[in-house]
Amino acid sequence: MAAQRLAGRARLTGVLAVAILSGVAIGLAVGTLGGGGSVLAVPVLVYVLGENLPDATTAGLAVVGAGALAGAARHALAGRVCWRHAVSFTVAALPGIALGTVAGDAVPEAVLLVAFGLVMLAAASSIWRRAGREGPDPGPDADACPPLRLPRDALAGIAVGVVTGFIGVGGGFLIVPTLAVGLAFTMRTAVGTSLAIITATSALSLAVHLGAGRAVEDPGAVAAMAIACMAGSVAGAATAGRLPQRVLGRAFAALVVLVAGWLMVSALALGGP
Length: 273
Hints:
With 273 residues, the protein is mainly alpha-helical. Helix content is 80%, strand content 0%. The chain is globular.
């Protein structure tokens, strides 16, 4: 019995250590680049912590939502969150998500993953080309919010919502390029505003999941991962404030290409994630 208790404690300690380390790494990516949380968190929850996929999706929303909240707060303190844009974008995205979800239910999963990979590659290309056109970095003093044009913001929000609902994932991988390229944000304000939007959409999605009876298999590990993600996100947000625009844009584009490649190979050669 004593040996079993020791083995159980050792396993619990190992699970918590993995959850904390993974949470910090995910938070760094979220806080620095404004996206990538769900795509990084769900595989860790499934393949490392042993959650089933539906519950991992719910847990991922809690982890990423917590990280996005902490990162958005840190960016907001530095004036890198455009709140009026965030609110208008979020409100417009909600009906788009509902419409895209209905359309996505009629399409095979492999097709959805390939479609998402192509959308991500297009987004990465846009960000990379914009980063290449950046002149000398004017520094954080240039991170002012662009003028709010409600029709343009609403159209962008609806479009991202439809794609996100249709494919089932998206978040910052779609929001950051839309803000930076489509709405003329600097990369730093795009990252900060993206995190504010992700905080709202994650909270709403988590409420829907819990209302539908979804559960979290290991609340302790998920809580540890969420707290670690918050710490990592705060550190990542501080890092983003010091990185040149070109470096930040190309780092985001490189991460998007890697994830898009993995999704497409998974869909076409491995039968799904």
